[in-house]
Structure formats: C-alpha cells, structure tokens
C-alpha cells in the first residue's frame, strides 16, 4: 500500500512579513489624476491598510478636493470631473 502525503509548509512570521512587504512594494502608491487630458492632481495611498487614497491638487480649479480621501483613484477622478463640470456651467441670470 502506498501513502501519499502532501508536505506541510509552515510560514514563519519573518517570511510572511517579507512576502507582504514585497506585495506592497509592487503596488503603485501614487496615481496621476487627469480630466480631459489635463493633470489636475495626484492620489497617494493613505492609511495602514492601503485601502484609501488622499488627493493632492495640482491646479487651483480642484483645490476643494485637496487632501480628501477616496476609495479608488477612479473615484477621485470622478470627483474632479464633477467639480470642473460645475465650474464650467454658465450661471443662471
């Protein structure tokens, strides 16, 4: 009779920490936010779990978003688009 065993791999805390650090190092930590081809700011990973992004404006037109937190870079882009769209609308007399 043949018995097949699967080797058990024990992960030490050092190995797990090194793997997690390598994973985070591979992820981009900052993204450029563009609207209509123009750069309006960047978002940078924020928080211990890297699940939030903080916005930094590169133009006065989106200063209202400065240092706001977003769940994704795309959410920051949508907020910038909405802000700029509202600024471009003609005001009612």
Mind explaining what this structure looks like?
Residues 1-11 have a biased composition (Low complexity). Residues 1-20 are annotated as: Disordered. With 93 residues, the protein is of the alpha+beta class. It has a domain at 29-88. It contains 2 helices and 4 strands, in the order αββββα. It has a 4-stranded antiparallel sheet with strand order 1-2-3-4, covered by helices on one side. The radius of gyration is 22 Å and the shape is elongated.
Main features:
93 residues; alpha+beta; 4-stranded antiparallel sheet; 2 helices; 4 strands; disordered N terminus
What does this entry show, briefly?
The chain is built from two helices and four strands. The protein has helices at residues 13-26, 73-88; strands spanning 30-35, 38-46, 52-57, 69-70.
**Biggest sheet layout:** 4 strands, antiparallel
Shape field: elongated
Residue windows where pLDDT falls under 50 for at least 5 positions: 1-12
Structural class: alpha+beta
Rounded mean pLDDT score: 78
What spatial order of strands do you see in the largest sheet? 1-2-3-4
Cα radius of gyration in angstroms: 22 Å
Question: Tally the helices: what do you get?
Answer: 2
Topology as a string of helices (H) and strands (E): HEEEEH
Give the total of beta strands: 4
Helix content class: 25-40%
Distance between the termini: 91 Å
Strand content: 15-25%
Helix/strand layout:
Elements: H1 13-26, E1 30-35, E2 38-46, E3 52-57, E4 69-70, H2 73-88
Biased composition (Low complexity): 1-11
Region (Disordered): 1-20
């Amino acid at each position: 009779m043949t018995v097949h065993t699967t080797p058990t791999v024990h992960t030490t805390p050092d190995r797990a920490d090194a793997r997690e650090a390598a994973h985070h190092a591979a992820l981009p930590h900052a993204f450029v936010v563009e609207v209509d081809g123009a750069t309006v700011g960047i978002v940078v990973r924020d928080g211990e779990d890297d699940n939030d992004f903080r916005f930094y404006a590169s133009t006065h037109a989106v200063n209202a978003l400065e240092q706001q937190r977003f769940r994704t870079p795309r959410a920051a882009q949508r907020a910038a688009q909405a802000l700029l769209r509202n600024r471009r609308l003609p005001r009612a007399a």
